Amino acid sequence: MQSQDKYSIYKRICVNNPTKRLKLKGEVMSSVGLVLQGGGMRGIYTSGVLDFFMEKDLYFPYIIGVSAGACNGCAYVSKQIGFAKKMYLDYIYDPRYINYKNVFKGKSVLGMDFIFDEIPNSVNPFDFESFKSSNHRFIVTTTDYTTGEPVYFDKDECDDIFMAIRASSSIPFITPPVNFSGMQLIDGGVSDPIPIKKSLQDGNESNVVVLTDGNYMNKPRNIKRLAYKMYPKDTKLIDWVFDMHRINNDALDYINSLECENKAIVISPSKHIKMGIVDKNRSKLEELYNLGYQDAKSKYEDIKRLYN
């Protein structure tokens, strides 16, 4: 069975069948979580979703994000409409932001200092005070480069949550690991790409899950031997990356089961827009942002019922 077909079956059974729709009106939820998947430049879809939420003054008490999801989440916590969109669109042709030539120089394709230091501190100022004073619980998901296990950082308990966000965004083989909190950390998507179980463990009975790509991942083609030759010192990381499809698909299975049980609302692209993790196609990025905005709008009434 193809991955897209499996996902379509779930959606047909759990969403398009009127008897299986979310029936949330009148239910009392102790807490509602917002779970944000990563996805590199596909994260602009989440920017559209969250900008719609902010325009409607819809804020969740708990937010957990991975990689691009964590980047979007911090702008949501600081209540800066349009901030994340600008981060994706305004600098894509600046070589300090994305530079493919760095691959041949053994350097990071993404300009992490430019993205996580120069832009938010001077070029496109981030509202650090609003972020720090927010009463929202904000969790960032990273991966321990030594063990391959997920490591979570809470905004209110972490010495430097923005360094944790940088670590969560350190895509394997594209950007280097980040030394933080006594660990080497990499992209949270390696170990926990959609941290729905963490949200449930933290007490959220219901969740709104934003996926940048709701399709199931195919098993990587048989190029592991080539990867070992290219990155002989990173064999354990290669093994983890080649196992990401299983972890991702298990998470999607679990989220779909929660959706069937009326414990989750899933927002994912209603239209397929092909895009790479590091993509500089501005028209596609704008299209994906607008799609996120419209998809959030279509789920707005369902989400409001969570609070009724």
Automatic annotation (TrEMBL):
Instruction: Give GO MF terms, alphabetically.
Output: hydrolase activity
The record places domain PNPLA at 34-200
Q: Which residues form the active site?
A: 67, 187
Q: Where is this motif: DGA/G?
A: 187-189
Motif GXSXG extends across: 65-69
GO BP: any one term = lipid catabolic process
Kindly provide the name given to this protein in its UniProt entry: NTE family protein RssA
Species: Alkalithermobacter paradoxus
- CDD domains according to UniProt: Pat_hypo_Ecoli_yjju_like
Which residue positions does the secretion signal occupy? none
Q: Where is this motif: GXGXXG?
A: 38-43
Keyword field: Hydrolase, Lipid degradation, Lipid metabolism
Its gene?
rssA_2
